[in-house]
Predict the structure.
Amino acid sequence: MRAYTTSSRVLMPDLADPTLVGAWNMKPRGGRIIDHCAVAHDGTPYHGTSTSPSIFGPAQLFTGATFIDCGDLGRDIQTLAFWIRPHDVGNDYVFDIKAGTHYVYITAGVVDPDGWAAPTVYVDGAASTDALILHKWTRVVITTATPIDADNFNFGVAAANFGHFEIAGVEVYSDEKTAAWAAADYRFGASAIPFKTAWGARDTLLAAEPAGMYVGDNSTPFEILSGTHRLQTLGVFGGPVKHIWTVSAGDMYMRGDHMMATPTERAFGTWDFWTYKGAGTTLDVNIIATGPALSGYTLRHDNLGMLSLQEVGVGAVCTRVGAAPSNQLLHHRITRAFNGDFVCYMDGAQWGTGNDLTTTEAAGILIGGDPGTVVMWSDQRGGHCFTKYQGVLPL
């Protein structure tokens, strides 16, 4: 059973697990990188490693000839798990496990466990040989049925091709973890939240706020670009709920720098939100906008009731069969994996899939609609929010 500290978003495995050989969350102490296991193998940094913030807590940034030496772990290992955010497409040495024989490389973006016997590589919870995406946190789990004597365990390698990447949440285990374990391990980290609307936002003072004003709060401000809108609290949809109501047709936009995510990370993961619209109206929730105008990918519920995920200016990535209801609250979830696979859900049921990697960075989120269209903000219990999750969380 893991613990998840929401204030600092530090991921920590079950330290009582007898198969756990090492667990480093990358927070330095006294000039060393601490192993939290009972028999600790703290890491000694060499050649200028540095700590960088991440949604998972501290990470270590590797550039040039940097590495961290943890020495002989004293036990054989069969599973290595870690979060990595690569920053180049070269051939990077990420781990040295057994001196001269067992490594982990990133070769042209693909995870390469060199020297491992018949390894299985899981990327974001599923077996994969696809290339990683630059500037995006990805969970990697590598397993083998053949034990490896981890007698020279380093993050980074004291050799050529050092690479440029960040790592966090490194764990090694003495057994070969299963596909189900890798999926659950990924889902735990994927549930980190870089953006979520909250009940504490104040209702707007005016009945219709004009362009140039903001709705929301300091952490989640939407700028009104056109039309008039308001954030209000009403006793509807089962209780007091805050929602954004479009008074006259127009758009609102939130810049991505209000998320704890890179532009690439804003364009992948999971979006979860509720909408309402009347018959004959159109609502766009532009989850991956490349700027303060309709762009990238948008969930569109149009005036005929058709629900689709659109690549703006190109066409539908996927379209729901049959009209979606108007005049009722709808719960949406959209996921996008690192390989470009989209999956769309409404009210708990999957309605469409598609694949597209044309746009891989997002500048923000845009909401646009006709008068009377609504996007929920929050209820008193923290539900009915607009939430962006770090990773892919299918229903």
Observations:
- The mean pLDDT is 91.
